[in-house]
Amino acid sequence: MNHRPNRRRSIGFTLVELLVVLAILGLLAGLVGPRVLSQLDGAKSKTAVVQIKDLEQAVELFKLDVGRFPTSAEGLDALVTNPGVNGWNGPYLRRGLPDDPWGNQYRYESPGRNGEVDIFSYGSDNAPGGSGEAADLGNWQ
């Protein structure tokens, strides 16, 4: 009576074990995934607020050097390239003009509707209005 254990049977996982593990992983992804994604969306809004503050500081530096804010026609590009004005001592942004976290350009108005200048993003939908991640973010908030 030679009783050798079946080597094929002792190596690896059974199909049932693999299916159980996949089901558990699927449940975890379904429960944790939406929470992680909502945190990422919130991070984009916070990043936009920080970038808008940086742009606002750069606009203030432009005003100190030139004696006025960039016009709406010059826009935020005046912070990185000389628009042909006396006193320009830029670039006023170290890494160039950033896009908002959703890949769109920041908007600039001078004079602004909410202050001397308005610097803002239309949010994830790149359209005025909206709520949540699609809400407008600006330096007046």
Structure overview:
The mean pLDDT is 88. The longest helix has 52 residues. It is elongated and about 100 Å long. With 141 residues, it is mainly alpha-helical. 18% of the residues are buried. The chain contains two helices and three strands, in the order ααβββ. Strands 1-2-3 form a three-stranded antiparallel beta sheet, covered by helices on one side.
Short description:
Its main location: membrane. The chain has 141 residues and is mainly alpha-helical.
Terminal CA distance reads: 85 Å
SSE run: HHEEE
User: What is the number of helices?
Assistant: 2
Radius of gyration: 27 Å
Average pLDDT figure: 88
The side-by-side strand order for the widest beta sheet comes to 1-2-3
Structural features:
141 residues, mainly alpha, Glycoprotein, Type 4 Pilin, three-stranded antiparallel sheet, transmembrane helix
Give the topology, please:
Elements (H helix, E strand, L loop, with lengths): L6 H4 L4 H52 L40 E3 L8 E4 L15 E2 L3
Antiparallel strand pairs: 1-2, 2-3
